[in-house]
Design goal:
The structure holds 2 protein chains of 2 kinds. By secondary structure, chain A is an all-alpha fold. Chain A has helices at residues 7-20, 58-68, 73-76, 89-108, 112-128, 132-147, 151-171, 175-199, 203-206, 212-223, 233-249, 257-271; one strand at 48-49. Chain A is globular, with a radius of gyration of 22 Å. Chain A starts with 6 loop residues before the first helix and ends in a 10-residue tail after the last helix. Residues 1-31 of chain A have low confidence and may be disordered. Chain B has one domain (3-147, 156-166): Jelly Rolls (Sandwich). In chain B, strands 1, 2, 4, 6, 7 and 9 form a 6-stranded antiparallel beta sheet that branches. In chain B, strands 3-8-5 form a 3-stranded antiparallel beta sheet, with no helix packed on it. The longest helix of chain B has 16 residues, at 26-41. Mean pLDDT of chain B is 83; it is low at 1-24. Classes of the chains: A mainly alpha, B alpha+beta. At the A-B interface, α1, β1, α2, α7 and α10 of A face α1, α2, β2, β3 and β6 of B. β1 of chain A pairs parallel with β3 (62-68) of chain B.
Chain lengths: 281, 167
């Protein structure tokens, strides 16, 4: 009769079997197989709809824009002067998201100097939010990776920075602030993308703005805000602006050049509520 | 978590999990999903830090909405950490048509690849299942060890995690 294997070997074998089951990693390496065509009924789905919305990072849209055109990403970087937010955490959270998006623009531009400036600003802002200890390792990694021109690593760390801040906020039961970080990033990304598209319009590029689900998500998030922040002029202005964006994006048909120009101008107006200095007009 | 440290972390998680008998940790499911993604990073996929996770009754399908952009290629990877549980992941457009081009489902890991034909909201379906027969039985349930109260017992729900990458 065979003796049972010692526990340590059983564990090792199980771990190796798990790795072997992964494509590209182990002995049982296999390519994927085509999925069988299938339809599901979305209006009567026999299961559970997951509430959580994961907002794409600007780099996802930038990647497509790079395939369609050769944008001058350096001209898209507009790091504003640091402004005193008066410790208002909602505005700090929005600004944090926009700063991270600014970092993604600088990565597309492969501009190490700007990335370093943005990395330092991200750290300064995290101190105002009381999250510096969580952000510092990412901030340093961003600066280090940019010096090494490891752009994928910079993108990875920018994403990780935002995720760390959002997760920390959620652990502190501050889901509102976490959502505002995403909104700030989305607005800055949308603004730079619409600026580039309006400069060299095509329907293929304009289609990138077809994001009604995300705008609806942000509108619901702002509408559900409670407390003093909900009645701040900046937040009310953002709520109105999001409604204007939604009205354009949900129109039937392709987004026209005029639509893109409007999206650019509205997103700029919204960013002037917390990120850019207000224009003279 | 740094992507480079994930393989080590997941093996440790598996070893600790099997040794300690405590399995149903959502973070472990996410780690497994990230582990499934690891080989694709070398192919140029950038794996997002943000993700979806939770617990679900076995066999109950989950539907996740997500914005995709035409021009990018996507992989979604799912994982569950309960021994013997299996997981599947599929992707559909906003009319309910399957748009997965390639997929795999191997026990606790699964993945599906898609090249969106339009920029829009898509739906990812995750199904985790567990049948308490054969290999799905824990060592205690097979009688290999004396059962310990609360250890190795199926809690009635499975953990799941879903991550994605693009290029």
């Amino acid at each position: 009769m065979s003796q049972p294997l010692p526990a340590v070997f059983r564990h090792l074998i199980v771990a190796l079997v798990f790795r072997a089951m992964l494509p590209g990693l182990g002995m049982a390496q296999e390519g994927g197989v085509p999925s069988s065509p299938e339809r599901i009924n979305l209006t009567n789905f026999p299961g559970e709809l997951v509430d959580k919305v994961v907002v794409p990072i600007p780099a996802e849209i930038f990647a497509v824009l790079d395939k369609l055109d050769e944008p001058d990403w350096n001209s898209g970087i507009q790091l504003p002067a640091a402004m005193d937010r008066g410790g208002e955490r909602s505005l700090l959270a929005l600004t944090f998201g926009s700063l991270v998006a600014e970092g993604f623009i600088a990565v597309q531009a492969k501009n190490a100097g700007e990335i370093e400036s943005i990395g330092k600003r991200v750290l300064d802002l995290s101190e105002s939010l009381g999250l510096a200890s969580s952000v510092r390792p990412h901030s340093l990694a961003i600066i280090e990776a940019s010096k090494n021109r490891d752009w994928a690593k910079v993108r990875d760390e920018l994403d990780a920075t935002q995720q760390t801040v959002r997760t920390t906020m959620e652990k502190l039961r501050d889901d509102e602030l976490s959502g505002l970080v995403s909104l700030g990033g989305w607005l800055r990304g949308t603004n730079v993308v619409t600026s580039f598209i309006s400069g060299s319009y095509s329907e293929d590029k304009a289609e990138l703005l077809n994001q009604p689900g995300l705008i609806a998500h942000f509108r619901e998030m702002i509408a559900s805000m409670r407390g003093p922040a909900a009645s701040m002029p900046a937040i009310r202005g953002i709520a109105t602006g999001l409604a204007r964006l939604e009205a354009i994006i949900t129109e039937p048909g392709n987004l026209s050049e005029e639509d893109i120009n409007q999206l650019r101008d509205i997103s700029r107006d919204l960013l002037e509520e917390f990120y850019f200095a207000k224009s003279a007009s | 978590m740094n992507h480079h440290s994930r393989p080590i972390a997941i093996v440790c998680a598996i070893l600790v999990g099997f040794g300690g008998g405590a399995h149903a940790f959502v973070n472990e499911a996410i780690s497994m999903a990230f582990e499934a993604a690891t080989p694709y990073v070398e192919q140029g996929f950038e794996v997002r830090e943000d993700n979806w996770s939770g617990e679900v009754e076995p066999g109950k399908p989950l539907l996740i909405r997500h914005q995709l952009f035409r021009g990018n290629e996507y992989w979604f990877w799912a994982g569950t950490s309960w021994p013997g549980a299996t997981i599947k992941v599929d992707i559909f457009d906003n009319e309910g048509n399957s748009v997965g081009l390639e997929s795999f489902a191997k026990g606790s890991f699964a993945g599906v690849r898609s090249l969106p034909q339009k920029t829009a909201t898509y739906f990812i379906r995750v199904v985790a299942t567990y049948e308490k027969t054969g290999k799905a039985l824990t060592a205690a349930e097979r009688g290999a060890n004396d059962p310990v109260a609360g250890v190795g017992e199926f809690p009635g729900v499975l953990d799941w995690g879903l991550v994605y990458g693009y290029r």
